[in-house]
Amino acid sequence: MAEHRSMQRAALLDAARSLLSEGGTEALTFPALAERTGLARSSVYEYFRSRAAVVEELCEVDFPVWAAEVSAAMQGASTAEGKVEAYVRRQLTLVGDRRHRAVVAISASELDAGAREKIRAAHGSLVAMIVEALGEMGHEQPRLAAMLVQGVVDAAVRRIELGAAEEPGVIIEAAVSMALRGVGGLSVGDGPA
Length: 193
Prior knowledge:
The chain is an all-alpha fold. The chain has ten helices and no strands. The protein has helices spanning 2-23, 30-37, 41-47, 51-75, 80-93, 98-105, 113-128, 131-136, 142-161, 168-181. The longest helix is centred in the N-terminal third of the chain and has 25 residues, at 51-75. The protein is elongated. The protein starts with a helix and ends in a 12-residue tail after the last helix. The relative contact order is 0.10.
């Protein structure tokens, strides 16, 4: 029985990823989850009390996998600059991944305070990955610099997700350049769209 419930829960989470990836938070409804999994709508409520509970569990399951991939990319770099570049580049190359798209599609305003705090803590652990590298690069306030680098990553994610005029590769290169060299590092042809 426990194995069956575990499999059903995993199927619901997979369906939720697909729905979020395809249509954002509006697409994540209990009727849609029921349809995707072949469960009765009332059965979905046996696993999750609300849409926010589905989102919270997705974050708990998917965010550590995403963070581990970013960490592994950083460990492959031999310099502080290389670590920062790997941090930015790996997050942005994950944008097309369903797990990442589901996490990005989540609107924190739908979540209760506890869920928002868990997500904030998870993001904080991600930002903490580059504090040391930024310190090695000479930043006087590496924690602040790390938060600003993550802001660049978040903006680039939104740009890619919106299907901007630029190719994703162009956005990724601009974000890496900005993270490493600031706005002075952009070439003349990289002006605003």
